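Journal club prep, notes for RB
We'll compare a predicted complex against what the paper describes. Inputs for the fe (ii) ion case:
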Amino acid sequence: MFEEAQYFAPVAAQKDGSVVVELSASHPGFADPVYRERRNAIARLALDYQPGTPIPAAEYTEQEHAVWAMVTRELAVKHQKYATAEYLAGAARLGLPQDRIPQLEEVSELLEPLTGFRYRPAAGLVPLREFYGVLADGFFYSTQYVRHHSVPFYTPEPDVIHEVIGHANALAHPRYAALYRLAGQAARRVEGEQALEFVSKVFWFTMEFGVMAEGHELKAYGAGILSSYGEIEEFRGMDIRPLDLAAMGATEYDITKYQDVLFRAESLQHLEDVVGGFWDSCDDDAVARLLATGV
Ligand SMILES: [Fe+2]
């Protein structure tokens, strides 16, 4: 069963118009009322957002900016060793700030001239068809909150560090951006929920957790690996399998643990041929055939 919903803290609109983000008791920010109030205010920004208008600025503390600075510094070192050449080229072109959390509007302003992508704020979980569908139009839904400052290298949810360091650096490269757009077109084309989930699983095992041969080394291009301080050191030791659509659709994953089954493309061209080609033309029948062979 596909359970992405558990990845995000639920967001509840109250009768009085306020918005409450329901953090679980195990969340590092659970017992911090100041953090929780800020989470509620940031979720409210996304719920009130009107497409076509500038994304309202989220309020971050100096401690939170310091978390961004520390994670950016540490990940940049690891990226040199573990990220694909195209991801590194995207990051160099994008030029994200290193000392503070950029606002999503600022990320859009940096990204749009490069590949046409703009960010949109998300309070929490966005329905799959909407989340993936707008990729076809060059929009990327992103959370705005940041992880709790007490654990700078850990987050139970996809926070702005994941969304921007992981995804925007990839979206800044035209070949990756084209793959994101194709995923969006596929999500719009398929009709059944099963086919939509299949499209999203292929996205999960590629644009989120994909790895790729580069020379004699294994590199990562997936945003989930490249934004995770712990996972980036571990991926080469995981169960690495050949790039295979049916196998991706049949492989379960647990979002609460390190992704231990990864699929390797032999090159970016290989990824474009297999996964880009699938998203470019897939329909419900094609997905049904793959599901029948995936076991
Ligand atoms: Fe992501």
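Talking point for the session: The CA atoms of residues 267 and 291 lie 25 Å apart.
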